[in-house]
Amino acid sequence: MAQYRFSAQVIKRSDGRSAVAAAAYRAGERIVDERLEMPFDYRARGGVEHTEIMLPDNAPAEFGDRSTLWNAAEGAEKRSDARVAREIQVSLPHELDAEQRQELVREFVQTAFVDKGMIADVAFHTPDAEGDQRNYHAHIMLTTRSVDAAGFGGKERDWDKRERVVEWREQWAEIQNRHLERALGPDAPKVTHKSLEAQGINREATIHLGPTASAIERKGEQSERGDVNREIKAENAERKTIGKEIESLYDDLSVRSEQRPKFIESLQREFADYDKTLRQQVASWKAEQIAAKPPKVTRVADVRREIIEPGRAKLRAAEREQERTRQRTNNIAAKRQTLASFIRNPARVIWAKIREVHALDRAAREVARAKLNVRLRQDWLRSDPGKAYVMAQVDKSFRETAPAKLQVRTLARKIKRAEKRIKNVAILRERIAIAGELGVKTITTPVKARTPQQLIRHVDAGTLKAISRASPQQLQQARQTVRSLGRGMTMGFTR
């Protein structure tokens, strides 16, 4: 299930921090901080999946280099308590693949930050080997000053306002939901930037452990943050228990309503029919699942490959022809050198050499033409019309496959619920059979039950009450008899 996380912090000199060091760590690179004359080398760290720097249109091209960018950002600050950079950390949906996660973050960073004039240094991280394998996340380091072709200018105080962070949080939820729906269809999981209280959920949120506490917990030791989360989880579990108790109270009120006794045989027939109906439903839904197998979804990479591959195929063919031409001319030239009559005729030598040069030149022109074709296709894909075409093809594919994918997921949920009910009915039928072996003739049931599940709970409670009067020996013998005769449906009886 996709989870929402958006945290923001400021990298300040007053905390003894360096933007250069932070960028080197997040990117897993070696960068020298020119202000401190100190290298920061994090090339040995793992988990860095991809990094890139996104520049506004008016930023110097050299700021596309990580070392140049953050040393310039540090050099623009003179105060000892300067706020050198801002960092945003976001959790990424594990339901998306690497390319989809990168496209998601690029859209968010472009619209929320780069279009507003910030330079963004993005690092995509994969889950730790020993941690939660769903923990894909990205670190987004942002500049705090305006920028133009000459470099950094003044501080942009509007970026420091609290309402900006509120806007970014909401924007991140909206863009993430749109990408999830595009990738998984209309039934995709949703995230929200709202608190649990604002959503009306009676549950307290846990706190983020962070790398230090996570490492302590993985060693089997308890951290302060881990203790806080354990307390929160215990309280949430208590809330859940209270909810079940409320449901139990409703069942109790139903039991106190009008009741009537039913014979054991009648109950067995009723639940056997219900079991048969459930199994028929499951079989029908599974057949629908097989028939509704969704087609393969077209991805961005598929569309790009479809456009680029013909050009690359021509390039490979041209390069192969160029190599064959080179080998052929070399072989023929070598053979000519063995012919004395050929060597004694300079005109023929010159004529043959010209043919070789022309053949090689034609092959080279074909290779150059094929390379240009590939480059033009790549440039078009990077252009706005190209991007629009790619996304239109991807969106079309998602729209075409979404109904089938939604149908498959809906059927899967129905099957799971029905199989759980089948299991509960089987356990109840075994218990009813055991009650019959113990001499119980009837079980009291409510005249009107709201749902089959409520009826099952009532009958189960009445059956357990009836067989609880038997001794352990009688109960064991009755259970063995039922199972040996095959009258019980499962081994699920518990006293």
Overview of the structural elements:
The protein is an alpha+beta fold. It is 59% helix and 13% strand. The chain contains 14 helices and eleven strands. It has helices spanning 19-27, 66-75, 98-112, 162-184, 196-199, 210-218, 224-255, 264-291, 300-336, 340-343, 346-382, 384-437, 452-467, 472-484, and strands at residues 6-12, 30-33, 38-41, 48-54, 83-91, 120-125, 137-143, 145-148, 151-155, 259-263, 442-446. The chain has a five-stranded antiparallel β-sheet with strand order 1-5-7-6-4, sandwiched between helices. Helix 12 packs parallel to helix 13.
In short:
With 495 residues, the protein is an alpha+beta fold.
Determine the N-to-C terminus distance: 36 Å
Quick one: how many beta strands? 11
What level of helicity do the residues show?
Answer: 55-70%
Structure annotation, total helices: 14
Radius of gyration: 35 Å
- Structural class, by secondary structure, is alpha+beta
Question: Average pLDDT across residues?
Answer: 82
The main β sheet shows up as: 5 strands, antiparallel
